[in-house]
Amino acid sequence: MEDGRQQGQTMKASSPVRSVGVSQDGQWIVFGDHNNNAILWNAAATQAKVRKFTEHSCRVNWVDTSSDGTKLATADFFRARIFSIPYGDRLLPLSHSNVAGVKFFPGGTRFATASTAQGFRVYSTDNILFDSGQSGCASGYFVTPLVWPPDGQQLLVANKGKIICFGLSKSLTSEWSIHENQSQPSIASNSRFIACAAHSSVSLWDCASHKQISSIITHTTVVGRAAVSPSGWYLACGNGKNITIHGQYLDYSVSVHPLMKLASLTITMLFLCPA
């Protein structure tokens, strides 16, 4: 993080990568690609490809792993699927049209999907615990519209001009306006702060009060993804072919190889190169 150097070898994909997920223990990395596949890699030991999941009918735009590293969630535009790791047993298919995101609950027992047409849903195994209906629709496909902060107390859904908050304990929703209402926002959180990227600017919000806690951070190009470190000291913004790191003690950019495209941004900053 301090020097922006690459850690480990580059993992090459056979088609453009649409999404990236990393397990909390760092053992598993999963790619969702343009050829309707999800690819599981063992990042901790051999850095080898473990399994290819071919059940999707169109490109896999969203992936996530459970906190215990035993389950994988994948989603295309039409449905989400849950698989076991590493064996690949299909545990659950979920029909939710116009899917725009899938995310596991931090404890691993629940998960959520977001849709641009049917709102967001919270599940426990195969039961729907909450369905927002159309009032909770996500704003777009090519951002990060769905975040479950590590404390697991609230689910955040980004929509154009606002963030919707679902309180798990009382199944209540609230919402507040953000700094920009013309672009599809992308959000990230670490339980203390919420980073909201919209077009070329980023705002920071307090998770508990939902109040803005800093001035707007502006960039010269569109910010497609953002990530907040667990400590809250670092904010990583994917803009153009660069990652800009904002922090308490530093503020610099890391260039991406010209052939690479930013598929997903986590605080570990993973980049994938299409063949």
Automatic annotation (TrEMBL):
It comes from the Eukaryota. This is Anaphase-promoting complex subunit 4 WD40 domain-containing protein. SUPFAM superfamilies: WD40 repeat-like. Keywords: Repeat, WD repeat. It holds the Pfam family WD40. The keyword Repeat applies. It comes from Pisolithus tinctorius Marx 270.
